[in-house]
Design brief:
Blueprint lengths: L23 H19 L3 E2 L5 E3 H8 L4 H6 L2 E3 L5 E4 L4 H10 L8 E10 L11 E10 L4 H17 L6 E7 L3 H16 L7 H9 L13 H5 L10 H17 L4 E2 L11 E9 L7 E7 L3 H4 L7 E7 H7 L9 E7 L5 H13 L4 E4 L4 H9 L3 E7 L5 E6 L4 E6 L2 E4 L1
Parallel strand pairs: 1-5, 7-8, 12-13, 12-14
Antiparallel strand pairs: 2-4, 3-4, 5-6, 6-11, 7-9, 9-10, 10-11, 14-17, 15-16
Helix pairs in contact: 1-5, 1-11, 5-9
GO biological process, one term: histidyl-tRNA aminoacylation
Protein name: Histidine--tRNA ligase
InterPro entries: aa-tRNA-synth_II (IPR006195), aa-tRNA-synth_II/BPL/LPL (IPR045864), His-tRNA-ligase (IPR015807), HisRS-like_core (IPR041715), HisRS/HisZ (IPR004516)
Length: 415
């Protein structure tokens, strides 16, 4: 049976919830990553790389079998060896696993940072994708409130250096130590049980599994009950109060503004003490641009020794969406227009010298010689150098003050 050569091959499309990047947004994305790498070095955070795939049990244990991420959103599959494998939906669990399996306790306290792709099967929307990217910073093996404060100062400086701190607010809460959290959880369950008839179906399901999550429910039906629930402050031990006081004192000393949000929670039991989010109204409903907290019980839950830890993550796409037009300067330093093909060797020599000297340079040497200058003039650059038809061009690369001197036949136009 012969093939119909006229049949049109379908155009390949990206997987839903993924994106291709080119030009402006790709530059913003790279700007976020570059700024993060520069700032994390200022704070002494080592670069860390962990696998994109992990045993499914790593995330099931760390995120909780009953959470939406584990039950509905993870990309999991069975490999040829019969092992259940999952594309990482977040960084922290993989970093905690690496800490245990590599014996990195010897380096504690360990300050690490990373960035890369993550995967969750959820409804795509503005700033949210099925393959998305995050920055991540963690301090493992420190139970000092100064670690929490430093992480928050790090995050604050990152947002400032990205030029997006305007309109972004740090909201902060304490979940207390284990004794505080247990007492508060019992009081919340009692409160919610007394109002079962007023709760949504989702909150009724959470009441048995994650009652703290009812506090941040977005369902209007839940809000009156959640808003009238007791705050944690009445159940904080003196040690927990002192810890939170030390964190906020560190922020005040560093000049980092913050607001208390007593309804900011983390549902999983291994979270302790500090919980925080940097929020904005510039991204619609998806207002959190960076968030994290202290998770002193996680490494023990994964089978490691009791280990204090705190960290945060931020969506690169969301941060890139906030970066202003004036932050990214994509101009080249020079563009060279070769108006006489006999001068091409000289132009290539100049091109190599400029690039070796650290100047971003492009060359226009194809097409009609008479149109090359106009073509080069359309390329964003700080200066245009045209090599004409007579005496050629000589050059001097003064790297110290970044001057370029063109003599003989030349045209230099500042753009």
């Amino acid at each position: 049976m012969s093939k119909d050569k006229s049949a049109k091959i379908p155009t390949p499309q990206p997987v839903r919830g993924t994106q291709d990047m080119l030009g402006d947004f790709a530059d913003r994305f790279a700007h976020v990553v570059d700024t993060f790498d520069r700032v994390r070095r200022l704070y002494g955070y080592k670069r860390i790389e962990v696998p994109v795939i992990e045993p499914t049990a790593v995330f099931a244990r760390s995120l909780g079998e009953t959470t939406d991420v584990v039950s509905k959103e993870m990309y999991s599959f069975e490999d040829r060896g019969g092992e259940s494998i999952t594309l990482r939906p977040e960084f922290t669990a993989g970093i905690a696993r690496a800490y245990i399996s590599n014996g990195w306790q010897q380096f504690a306290p360990l300050k690490v940072a990373t960035h890369g792709p993550l995967f969750r099967y959820e409804r795509p929307q503005k700033g949210r994708y099925r393959q998305f990217h995050q920055l991540d910073a963690e301090v493992i093996g420190s139970d000092s409130p100064l670690a929490d404060a430093e992480l928050l100062v790090f995050a604050d400086q990152l947002l400032k250096e990205l030029g997006i701190s305007e309109g972004v607010t740090l909201t902060l809460n304490t979940l207390g130590d284990a004794a505080s959290r247990d007492a508060w959880r019992a009081a919340l369950v009692e409160h919610f049980e007394a109002h079962r008839g007023d709760l949504s179906e989702d909150s009724l399901a959470r009441l048995d599994k994650n009652p703290l999550r009812i506090l941040d429910s977005k369902d209007p039906k839940d809000r009156p009950v959640a808003d009238s629930a007791p705050d944690i402050d009445a159940y904080l031990t003196s040690e927990a109060q002192d810890f939170f006081g030390a964190v906020t004192a560190g922020l005040d000393a560093a000049g980092v503004a913050w607001e208390r949000n007593a309804r900011l929670v983390r549902g999983l039991d291994y979270y302790r003490h500090t919980a925080f989010e940097f929020v904005t109204d510039r991204l619609g409903a998806q207002g959190t641009v960076l968030g994290g907290g202290r998770y002193d019980g996680l490494i023990e839950a994964l089978g490691g020794p009791p280990t204090a830890a705190v960290g945060w993550a931020a969506g690169i796409e969301r941060l890139a969406m906030l970066v202003g037009d004036d932050v990214i300067d994509n101009r080249l330093d020079f563009v060279i227009a070769v108006e006489d093909d006999s001068q091409l060797a000289l132009a290539m020599k100049m091109l190599a010298a400029l690039r070796n000297g650290g100047f971003a340079t492009e060359i226009v040497a194809s097409g009609s010689p008479r149109k090359r200058f106009d073509k080069a003039a359309k390329i964003p650059a700080r200066a245009l150098v045209a090599i004409g038809m007579r005496d050629g061009v000589s050059y001097t690369n003064m790297r110290g003050d970044e001057e370029l001197t063109i003599v003989a036949n030349r045209t230099i136009r500042a753009l």
